[in-house]
User: Fold this.
Amino acid sequence: MQKSPITRVSEARVRPELFEAFHEWIVSAVREFPSRHPGLLDHEVLLAPPHSLLYVSRWRSEEDLVGYAGEHWRHQPVVLPGENEYLLAPLQVRHFTRAALG
Assistant:
């Protein structure tokens, strides 16, 4: 039985006056992630203005996530250099796997 991919959701609570700038910055920062992280199956940025942005990524395996986020991937978000300047609060990270419906 093959394991299901792991979906990682990082939530940023953004200073409203910097929301658009952060949106542009984060999209630019993650654009090349698929070519740099082979275990990354897909990713997207979801917006809920004026202050919430989600970076959602799907990973092939736990090993791939460790390669991206480190040994503490379950509880520790990946914070890019300069990211904290945009935020109201520290990043929150959660992980999900697909449940069988049948």
About this structure: The chain has one domain: 6-97. The first helix runs from residue 19 to 30. The helical segments are 19-30, 33-36, 62-69.
